[in-house]
Amino acid sequence: MSEMVTTTIDLMRHGEPVGGRRYRGQIDDPLSEKGWRQMREAVADHAPWDRIVSSSLSRCSEFAAELASRHGIPMKLDPRLMEIGFGEWEGRTAAELMAEDSETLNRFWSDPLNNTPPGAETLADFRDRVIAAWESLLNSYAGQHLLVVGHAGMMRMVLRHVLDMPLDRMFRLQVPSAGISRVQVDHFDAESFPRLIFHAGQL
To answer: Which PANTHER family does the record cross-reference, listed alphabetically (predicted)?
Structure first.
């Protein structure tokens, strides 16, 4: 008789980077002092994880490395968990883009699937690499409790996948700095049954 195995994955967004709020994408800005404080306060001394997996960008990986070292938890980097590439919008604020061409930004907000920023990664390509990383985690670490340190876009994509939302609705999910969401996946034979336990909560 087959037994059910449950995998728990906590998704954590990085704190505020140097330079504040903007379409940062894959620019490798480090955490600001506020960002470090946000992430340390969100976790405190709580460390129930069997392992930590992080985006390779420094605003995620540096905190993940500190946390792993402090608690003796194995850690690895996965570049597939990086934020979506925003192309020519990277480093720009929404206010700057609105002042330059408000219609382009409005079209992206209303229909991001068909209005990719110039030179940016498409939502379909972003979905494929993030969900490939997600499935790899479930296959490699079934039955374990993981912390995945990443980005707002990455978290939206995973949660959209778990909740079976349409791809173009993912930006309706708000993810705060240092926000944490928990997903549990029950594995039974060849089937997997994911569920969102909480979103943007504290541990």
So the answer is: BROAD-SPECIFICITY PHOSPHATASE YOR283W-RELATED (PTHR48100), HISTIDINE PHOSPHATASE FAMILY PROTEIN-RELATED (PTHR48100:SF1)
Residue 138 lies in a domain: yes
Domains contained in the chain, number:
1
Note the pLDDT tens digit of each residue in 14-41.
999 999 999 999 999 999 999 999 999 9
- C-alpha closest to that of 98 among 87, 109, 111: 109
Longest dimension (CA), the chain: 63
CATH number of the domain residue 173 falls in: 3.40.50.1240
Give every CB contact of residue 124 below 8 A, 6+ residues apart in sequence. Answer: 113, 167
Measured distance CA(199)–CA(175) in Å, rounded: 8
pTM over 0.90? The answer is yes
Q: Quote the CA–CA distance of 154 and 147 in Å, as a whole number.
A: 14
Residue 60 amino acid letter: C
